[in-house]
Specification:
Jelly Rolls, globular, mainly beta
Length: 214
């Protein structure tokens, strides 16, 4: 009887773990853009939900433009530190020095933001980027924001075109490593496909975005 009881507890624990909900920010597969707002910097990247291979995804098409979508939502990284998403790009942006202001364009990027409140200069961010000319796993400060916005190339020029890539990042650990502080909360998540500095053209697709405990 004791062994049976222990087995039942184990099964229930596994079921509860498997049923652990995802904290969705972008449910694009359900044709939803709830809470996402458009922010323009120069021109306007076109973002629209589109059916691709039988699944709704978010398509971004940028032509010498820089604008993004962002969603303000306070996330407790102690509870759900992992950011999950999938993405793919249709072409690369060639001939850019991505660490310079004139080359600060990316086929795709997803970033997390910690607001500085009234002290806006204390805002911090990590940009997870699909780089066209910088090697995978490279890290550098943003050309415009300096070390207040750290860039991390999750994909580089070696990544194949038109192929979905899945990402999973421990945001709290990345903030500790790249920013040097242990932040418990973030305030927003954004995505952007931009070509405004180099006057290029690129297309990208984004799948669902969510946070999880593991």
């Amino acid at each position: 009887m004791k062994r049976l009881f222990t087995t039942l507890l184990t099964i229930l624990a596994v079921q509860n773990l498997a049923a652990e909900p995802k904290l969705f920010l972008g449910e694009f597969s359900r044709n939803r853009l709830d809470g996402w707002e458009h922010k323009r910097f120069k021109g306007e990247t076109q973002y629209q939900l589109q059916n691709l291979d039988g699944v709704a995804v978010l398509k971004a098409d940028s032509r010498a433009a820089g604008s993004g979508l962002f969603k303000e939502q306070r996330i407790d990284l102690q509870q759900t530190p992992f950011l999950n998403w999938s993405w793919r790009i249709g072409n690369r942006l060639t001939g850019l020095n991505e660490q310079s202001k004139t080359g600060d364009d990316y086929a795709a990027r997803v970033y997390v933001v910690i607001k500085g409140g009234l002290a806006f200069w204390q805002t911090q961010a990590i940009n997870y980027v699909w780089a066209s000319n910088t090697a995978k796993d490279s890290v550098w400060p943003n050309a415009f924001a300096g070390d207040h916005a750290m860039m991390l190339a999750l994909r580089g020029p070696e990544a194949p075109l038109n192929v979905w890539q899945s990402e999973k990042r421990n945001v709290r650990a990345d903030l500790q490593k790249l920013v040097g502080e242990d932040f418990r909360f973030i305030d927003a998540v954004a995505l952007m496909t931009d070509t405004d500095n180099g006057n290029g053209q690129v297309s990208a697709f984004y799948g669902d975005i969510w946070f999880s405990k593991d």
